[in-house]
Design a protein that fits this description.
CATH class: Alpha Beta
Helix content: 25-40%
CATH architecture: 2-Layer Sandwich
Strand content: 35-45%
Distance between the termini: 10 Å
CATH topology: Nucleotidyltransferase, domain 5
Number of strands: 7
Structural class: alpha/beta
Number of helices: 3
Order of helices and strands: HEEEEEHEHE
Amino acid sequence: MATFIHHFFLKGTISTNMKNYVAVIGIDVSKLRIDAHMHHRSLHHVFSNPSKDYKALLLWTQRYLKEQCNFLCFENTGHYSTNLNVYFTEHHADSVQEI
């Protein structure tokens, strides 16, 4: 995942689906926790993995990015990441789950 994040960071902005993303949030998903890293701001935060913290994760990104367009990326870790992916889809968060 680090290579994936680094590739997009070097570009400055990401243009996908006619959007210009100014921030990439890399996410590591495990059974008990979600580690999120906002690359361009060097910010890191840990959330617990039950779905109640999914909202906190999106609020955290909004607090620092305001209305800026951001992109969330994470690796597939089975049902732990699948639940997060479903949440992002339901809340229209731009994200990709690597396989």
